[in-house]
Amino acid sequence: MSWLVRMTIPTELAYKQGFFDSYAWHKALWDCFPDQPDKKRNFLTRIDEHQGYFTVWIVAQSEPVRPEWCPETKYDSKKIAPAFLSHQLYSFDLRVNPTRALVRHDENGRPVLNLNGKRKSSKRIPIVKEEELQIWLERKASSGGFRISDAYPLEIERMTEDYFSQKRNKAWHGSVRFRGMLEVTDHSLFEKTYYTGIGGAKGFGFGLLLLVPVNDK
Question: Kind and range of the H or E element at 24?
Fold first, then answer.
């Protein structure tokens, strides 16, 4: 059994609670799972900022509860029917943190290898070019049980920098929003992708697929 939660939080209320960045939201949304403080995170989140309010989404495989800071009228939770993921076509809205690894090189310019023979990476950097972003998404789709349909133009918003503070250190994630249509190629793999998310920084509100089934007839 799984659940989809939508909360609509007024900006004034969010700031009053100290939800000023993605790390603050990251910590606050654990309040939806009060009986699982030490459990491995098994839910995805997304926070969209609008004029005067935030929309908070959660997809979880254990039932969330309404946190005290969320007014009852602003909280909506429903079970995800098994049939929801059985469709062939979906319109999708996805906010992700697309990155690529920089490969380390030795003094002779050769890639440094791990003991397993794979190239050793030094750090990850954001992907910003539109053509590279499309390739990144298509690669994730291929390994995630779906493909990007050309029946609807793929929209790629320009990357924005999502800054946050963690333990007095300032950092940021590159945030990119994709919108389009997808076609499922492997339902079992696609279901796994839906619940585990796409890309990195999932604990900071990235990787959750918002889906609307499309009638392919």
Answer: helix 22-28
Residue 154: CA count within 13 A, CB half-sphere: 19
Among residues 217, 192, 196, 215, the alpha carbon closest in space to that of 207 is found at 196
pLDDT in tens, 56-104: 999 999 999 999 999 999 999 999 998 999 999 999 999 999 998 776 6
CA dist list (Å): 190 to 5, 94, 102, 145, 178: 20, 14, 29, 4, 17
* pLDDT tens-digit series, residues 8-57: 999 999 999 999 999 999 999 999 998 876 677 889 999 999 999 999 99
- Nearest of 54, 5, 2 to residue 31 by alpha carbon: 5
Angle (CA) 201 151 133, round 5°: 30
Structure tokens at 10: 């007024």
Instruction: Answer for the pair 159, 135: CB distance below 8 angstroms, yes or no.
Output: no
CA pair distance 64, 213, nearest whole angstrom = 24
